[in-house]
C-alpha cells in the first residue's frame, strides 16, 4: 500500500505539470514514464519525490516500447503461453482458413509437432480483389473450435476497426498485418481491446517506424505487444521479401518487447523456411510463425511458401535440437544495452 501511495504522489506531480504519466508494473518495481513537453518537467523535482529511485531521460520517440524506459525484457503471457521467456514459441498453420476440415487437419498437425499457437487468416487482405478473401466470421468460429479440440492458442489477423470486437471474441491474440502497420486508427483500437497483439513489420518500414507503431498500441494502455519480422521489400526478386534477421538483434537492443520471425512470408519459398527458421532462433528470436498446409498444392493462399506436414515436422525437430543446444551451451545472442 505504501508503494502504491508513493507512486500516486509521483503521478499527481507529473499531471499537475501538464504532462502525461504512463505506468508499467514490474515484479520488483513500478516504472512511471513521462510524456509531453520535457521543458515542463524542469518544474517537477522528480528525484526528490518519495518513492523515486532514479530518473532517466529518454530521447527516443517511442517511450513505452524503448528498453531505456523498461530495461528488463518483457515476457508476454497469451492465455498461459509465455513469449520471451527464453523458450522459442511457434505459431503455425495455414495462411487462410479455407474450411473446417482443412483447419482441423492443420491444427492436429501443428499440435502434434509441438507448436503452441494455431495461426490462420479468417480475414485475408489480398493484393488482388479477386483472390480468396477468407471465410471471415465463419472462419473465426472454426478457429475457436480448433482451439477447443487441441488446446492451441489462436492468433489471427484483424484488418479493420469494425472487425476488432468479433476477432477479439474468438482469438487469444490479434495480429496486425504488414499492410496495416501504420494504420494508426486500427493500432489505437487494438490497443484498447485488451488482447495481446502481434505486430508485423511493414513491407518497407524502418525499425524506428515499426517501434513507433508499437507505441501507438501501448499508449492506449496495452503493454502486451509482440513484434514479428516478416521480411521487407528490396530490389531482390528471387525471394518474395528480404528477411531482415539483423532486425532481431536491433530490436533486442532498442526495445524490451519480444520479437518473432516469419520465414514463410520472409522468403516466399518453402525450401528456404527451414534454414531461415534455424537462423532466426540462432539470432535470438523469441519464436517463429510458420505456414503449414495439409496439401500446399491445393492451398487457396500462399501455397508456394507453405510447408507440408512432413517438412514441418522436420523443421520443428531441428528447432527443438537447436534451442536445447543453445541453452546447454549458454549461448545468448541478444545484444542488450
How far apart the termini lie comes to: 32 Å
Q: What portion of residues is helical?
A: 25-40%
Mean pLDDT, all residues: 91
CATH architecture of the largest domain: Alpha-Beta Barrel
- Please give the domain count: 2
Radius of gyration: 21 Å
Principal-axes geometry comes out as globular
| Count of alpha and pi helical runs | 10
Structural class, by secondary structure, is alpha/beta
Q: What profile does the largest beta sheet have?
A: 8 strands, parallel
What is the CATH homologous superfamily assignment of the largest domain? Aldolase class I
Percentage of β-strand residues: 15-25%
CATH topology of the largest domain: TIM Barrel
- The first-level CATH class of the largest domain is given as Alpha Beta
Main sheet: which strands, in order across?
11-10-9-8-7-6-5-12
Amino acid at each position: 500500500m505504501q508503494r502504491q501511495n508513493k507512486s500516486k504522489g509521483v503521478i499527481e506531480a507529473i499531471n499537475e505539470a501538464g504532462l502525461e504519466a504512463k505506468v508499467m508494473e514490474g515484479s520488483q518495481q513500478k516504472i512511471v514514464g513521462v510524456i509531453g513537453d520535457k521543458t515542463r518537467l524542469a518544474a517537477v523535482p522528480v528525484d526528490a519525490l518519495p518513492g523515486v529511485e532514479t530518473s532517466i531521460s529518454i530521447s527516443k520517440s517511442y517511450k513505452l516500447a524503448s528498453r531505456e524506459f523498461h530495461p528488463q525484457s518483457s515476457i508476454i503471457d497469451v492465455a498461459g503461453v509465455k513469449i520471451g521467456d527464453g523458450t522459442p514459441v511457434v505459431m503455425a498453420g495455414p495462411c487462410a482458413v479455407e474450411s473446417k476440415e482443412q483447419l482441423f487437419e492443420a491444427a492436429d498437425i501443428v499440435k502434434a509437432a509441438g507448436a503452441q499457437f494455431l495461426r490462420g487468416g479468417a480475414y485475408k487482405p489480398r493484393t488482388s480483389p479477386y483472390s480468396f478473401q477468407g471465410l471471415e466470421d465463419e472462419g473465426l468460429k472454426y478457429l475457436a473450435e480448433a482451439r477447443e479440440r487441441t488446446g492451441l492458442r489462436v492468433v489471427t489477423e484483424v484488418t479493420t476497426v469494425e472487425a476488432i470486437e468479433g476477432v477479439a471474441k474468438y482469438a487469444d491474440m490479434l495480429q496486425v498485418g504488414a499492410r496495416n502497420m501504420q494504420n494508426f486508427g486500427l493500432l489505437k483500437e487494438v490497443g484498447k481491446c485488451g488482447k495481446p497483439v502481434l505486430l508485423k513489420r511493414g513491407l518497407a518500414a524502418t525499425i524506428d517506424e515499426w517501434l513507433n507503431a508499437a507505441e501507438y498500441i501501448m499508449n492506449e494502455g496495452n503493454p502486451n505487444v509482440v513484434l514479428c519480422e516478416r521480411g521487407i521489400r528490396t530490389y531482390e526478386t528471387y525471394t518474395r521479401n528480404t528477411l531482415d534477421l539483423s532486425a532481431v538483434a536491433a530490436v533486442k537492443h532498442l526495445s524490451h518487447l519480444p520479437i518473432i520471425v516469419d520465414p514463410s512470408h520472409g522468403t516466399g519459398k518453402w525450401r528456404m523456411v527451414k534454414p531461415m527458421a534455424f537462423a532466426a532462433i540462432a539470432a535470438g528470436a523469441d519464436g517463429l510463425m510458420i505456414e503449414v498446409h495439409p496439401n500446399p498444392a491445393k492451398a487457396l493462399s500462399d501455397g508456394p511458401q507453405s510447408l507440408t506436414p512432413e517438412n514441418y515436422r522436420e523443421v520443428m525437430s531441428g528447432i527443438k535440437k537447436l534451442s536445447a543446444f543453445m541453452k546447454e551451451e549458454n549461448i545468448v545472442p541478444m545484444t542488450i544495452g
